[in-house]
UniProtKB/TrEMBL annotation, chain A:
GO terms for biological process: transmembrane transport. It is found in: Cell membrane. Signal peptide: none annotated. Residues 75-283 form the ABC transmembrane type-1 domain. It comes from Cohnella zeiphila. The chain crosses the membrane at residues 12-32, 79-98, 110-129, 141-162, 183-208, 264-283. The keyword Cell membrane applies. Its main location: membrane. Belongs to the binding-protein-dependent transport system permease family. Keywords: Cell membrane, Membrane, Transmembrane, Transmembrane helix, Transport. This is Carbohydrate ABC transporter permease.
Automatic annotation (TrEMBL), chain B:
This is Extracellular solute-binding protein. The lineage of its organism: Bacteria, Bacillati, Bacillota, Bacilli, Bacillales. Gene3D superfamilies: Periplasmic binding protein-like II. Residues 1-26 form the signal peptide. It comes from the Bacteria. It comes from Cohnella zeiphila. Residues 27-54 are annotated as: Disordered. Transmembrane segments: none annotated. Keywords: Signal.
Length: 298, 571
């Protein structure tokens, strides 16, 4: 570490950091631009020219979003599915990963095949719908949790991580009389935090962003997720430039809106991304470490 | 103790999970017994029993499930409650947010569609084939005299090709142009004002007015003036190029097609009209008056230009100008709003561009097999199509949403102020819901001789700002719809019909050629150049298979007309 830097090294550093900084700005700008638009008066935004700062500051756009009746219950559903779903999914995924990482497990190969197969082949939308319906999971909160409990890809990542841990770790615990559950929960999981954090992040972001299962299976208002409700608000605001309306030149009287779709879109992006954004700083270090470690084997 | 703790815990957990999962399900049919979805066979015994009983009373409260394609609709505002009082029917809305076609397929596969399915005619075929929707003609005979009356001579058009009626479309009873319709050509107020409010009838006349204004005002608020712009050519080349061409020719809107008196279908984009419109754009270009981004900007960018007050004119429909004009008014630039007027290529050519179809068949209602008591639904629709029902669904409740002064219905001032302050208010508290589908239509009249909907000239005139009123007064008009030619009925617009499968790939290619070659033709430097580019474009469109497209649509249209004439008893 104590070596002297040459001119070339400095030049490299400058160019390197300069480039990364530029790249960072490039990715940050659209986000800040949307933030500015979301805080700007929507009618004023129509004439364009908003870059980093709002021109006519207002919170109306957010007000329109938050005054939706069942947004509170939808937020609760989303939070519940994210917390519970993530916890259960990681738990079950880890348990399955442990099982198929054990060499003495007889059906190891077969189960592996089944898992991998599920990554390449699926039954298609309508059979899937019928299956869920026959399981009586439609119009139920559990449809958010149970079908996605085990992700084959996640199982493989955790399994690979378990397999690259020293064999002796589990073995010594076993000699001391530990059961499989104890080996998993007290020995393996504590040393596998990087991979668990990674999977937690994957799964929780997936849960938070998901709306398709809501659209497919739950038509009850009380089970709406936040994303679904926000989608509804967006559709509400979108000027229905259905070709029909456009062609007949007819302006729907119901299309009078205080807030333009552009502004709704911007503020909604903020509402959706900001909460889940806070998860990243906490997971970041595990995240990077976890994915590289997991990728080392297989 | 410790050794067994974790397995026990997890076992307990799994058990809890299973239990709650099951209980969640067993709750469901009980809680939503009337909901019908997912439990089609379950409660049918008891439900049909109560259905029998309800035929006598007819006002028993009943909940009927229906899919809502509009997320704005509120399930029980005060108008919905009033209707429930009159009919006993409450609608249970199932919002579909996302791809309705996919959802319809899933419902059909699972058999758990709602009792009423709202869908486009293009989707109905599969539901009929599966026997999921029920024929309605007998029920209408029995319970729906108003339904028959509303459709009148067009009633037979409701019939599907097998002779049964499955759909309940909306009637279209008006004989006049609805007050809120506007012609597609927009000119900025200030341009008209400076020219002394001339009568502009043709594109060339408008050109001269624009040119004079542009020479005097090369910039507006420090930014270059844009004499002619569009709605965003990058997204919708046909809206900017094809639609104006047939509109200037005074032809009805059949999107990419022209239909002559013998019902022959040809592509508009190969017609002389298209060429003439290109010539007009070319003239604008050569005089440096065409938006430099005409072909590249998107919808938002086009909107921004109009909202800055820099756009002077263009083929800009009223729905496009809504937000820009709102913005201009708040900026205090009311004189930079747009007047939508009618323009043609030739002053004296006949104008048939303002058309209307016999019935408004779009998001029609269909009663499914899952309906516990279809008769109640027909009775419900029958009520909506009565004068009393029309007043409720269009105007609202008397004394609350509207008043009757001098024998005429007028929107209640207090109510109007509230809806203006909060655009969501009408959905929560006013005449707005799925039932609105069965409106007689703007411009139609009830048996008392007064308008069926609040969407009248008086109403629209009352919403205008002073600048707009002043402009309209100069032209001796009350509302912009008066600029339009008289409305005519056509059997259908060709774009409403199910797209034929043959020629689909060719049609796509033709559209691509159209999009690609348009700038080249418009940006021609000399008339010879223009001729050459136009000819090579025509050549290329023909090579892309235009004949096949025309043949496919010709067949489609002639088939439709034959059926139409037969149904209407014209043959």
């Amino acid at each position: 570490m104590n070596r002297n830097y040459g001119v070339g090294d400095y030049a490299f550093q400058v160019v390197n950091y300069g480039f990364l900084l530029l790249f960072g700005c490039l990715t940050l700008y659209p986000f800040l631009n949307l933030l500015a638009i979301s805080l700007n008066d929507s009618v004023d935004s129509v004439r364009g020219g908003i870059y980093l700062l709002p021109r006519v500051f207002t919170l109306t756009n957010y007000k329109v979003i938050f005054q939706t009746d069942n947004l509170v219950s939808a937020t609760f559903v989303s939070l519940a599915r994210t917390l519970l779903g993530t916890f259960l999914s990681v738990l079950f995924t880890a348990m399955l990963a442990y099982t198929i990482s054990r060499k003495e497990f007889v059906l190891r190969k077969a189960l592996n095949m089944v898992l991998i197969l599920s990554m390449y082949v699926n039954g298609g939308l309508i059979p899937y719908y019928l299956l869920i319906k026959d399981l009586h999971l439609t119009n139920s909160f559990w449809v958010y949790i149970i079908p996605g409990l085990i992700g084959a890809f996640n199982v493989i990542i955790i399994r690979s991580y378990f397999e690259q841990l020293p064999e002796g770790l589990a073995e010594s615990a076993r000699i001391d009389g530990a059961s499989d559950f104890q080996v998993l929960f007290r020995i393996l999981l504590p040393v596998s935090m990087p991979v668990i954090a990674t999977i937690t992040l994957f799964v929780s972001v997936g849960h938070w962003n998901s709306w398709f299962d809501n659209y497919l299976f739950n038509s009850k208002q009380s089970l709406s997720t936040l994303q679904y409700e926000l989608m509804k608000i967006l559709l509400k605001s979108v000027q229905q430039v259905s070709t029909d309306a456009a062609r007949s030149g007819k302006v729907d009287k119901a299309m009078v809106n205080a807030v333009t779709p552009q502004s709704i879109r911007a503020s909604m992006t903020m509402v959706v991304t900001v909460p889940i954004l806070f998860v990243y700083p906490f997971m970041q270090r595990y995240f990077i470490k976890g994915i590289t470690v997991g990728a080392m084997k297989e | 103790m410790r050794k067994t703790f974790i397995p026990w815990l997890s076992a307990l957990f799994v058990l809890a999970l299973l239990l709650s999962g099951c209980s969640g399900n067993s709750d469901e049919p009980a809680a939503s017994g009337s909901d019908g979805s997912g439990s089609a066979s379950g409660p049918s015994g008891s439900a049909s029993a109560s259905g029998e009983a309800s035929k006598a009373a007819n006002l028993d409260p009943v909940k009927i499930s229906i899919n809502s394609i509009d997320p704005k609709f509120s399930p029980d505002n005060d108008v919905a409650q009033q209707i429930a009082k009159e009919t006993g029917v409450t609608l249970d809305l199932q919002y579909v947010v996302g791809d309705l076609t996919q959802k319809l397929d899933l419902w059909l596969a699972g058999g758990d569609y709602p009792e009423i399915v709202v869908m486009h005619p293009k989707e109905v075929g599969k539901y009929i084939d599966a026997g999921a929707v029920i024929p309605l003609e007998d029920l209408i005979d029995q319970y729906g005299p108003n339904i028959k009356k509303a459709f009148g001579k067009y009633y037979n058009l409701l019939k599907a090709s097998d002779g049964h009626i499955y759909e309940l479309p909306a009637p279209y009873l008006t004989e006049e142009t609805p007050a809120d319709w506007e012609a597609p050509w927009a000119v900025q107020y200030d341009v008209l004002k400076e020219a002394g409010y001339p009568e502009i009838k043709t594109l060339d006349q408008l050109f001269d007015v624009l040119k004079a204004y542009y020479e005097k005002h090369p910039t507006i608020d420090g930014k270059p003036t844009i004499p002619w712009s569009g709605v965003g050519g990058a997204d919708h080349p046909d809206w900017d190029l094809n639609n104006p061409a047939f509109q200037a020719a005074g032809r009805p809107d059949n999107s990419w097609f022209l239909i002559d008196d013998q019902n022959n279908v040809t592509l508009n984009i190969l017609s002389d009209y298209q060429k003439r419109y290109y010539q007009f754009l070319n003239k604008l270009y050569l005089n440096d008056m065409l938006d430099k981004e005409f072909f590249t900007m998107n919808y938002d960018e086009a909107e921004a230009k109009a909202a800055q007050g820099r756009t002077l004119a263009g083929s800009l429909p009223a729905w496009f100008l809504k937000y820009p004009e709102q913005s201009l008014r708040t900026q205090g630039k009311a004189d930079r709003q747009f007047a939508n007027i009618e323009l043609l290529f030739d002053e004296n050519s006949p104008d048939h561009s303002n058309t209307m179809t016999p019935i408004n068949s779009n998001n029609n209602w269909h009663i499914t097999k899952n309906a516990k008591d279809p008769a109640r639904i027909i009775q419900y629709v029958n009520f909506l199509l009565s004068d009393e029902g029309q007043k409720l669904i269009n105007w609202g409740i008397e004394g609350k949403h509207y008043d009757v002064t001098n024998g005429k219905r007028v929107v209640n001032a207090e109510w109007k102020a509230k809806t203006e302050a909060d655009p969501e208010y009408i959905f929560k508290n006013g005449p707005s819901g799925p039932y609105y589908w069965f409106t007689y239509g703007d411009g139609a009249k009830l048996s008392d001789g007064d308008y069926a909907t609040p969407n009248t000239k008086d109403y629209w005139a009352s919403t205008y700002d002073p600048t707009t009123k002043e402009l309209l007064a100069k032209y001796g008009k009350e509302v912009f719809s008066e600029f339009m030619p008289p409305v005519e009925r056509v059997p259908a617009w060709i774009w409403q019909l199910a797209e034929p499968t043959e020629g689909r790939a060719e049609f796509k290619r033709v559209q691509q050629v159209f999009k690609k070659d348009a700038p080249k033709i418009v940006y021609s430097k000399t008339p010879e150049d223009f001729e050459k580019n136009w000819n090579s474009y025509v050549e290329e469109v023909k090579k892309a298979g235009s004949a096949k497209v025309e043949a496919a649509y010709d067949k489609l249209w002639k088939g439709y007309i034959a059926q139409y004439d037969q149904t209407m008893g014209l043959q």
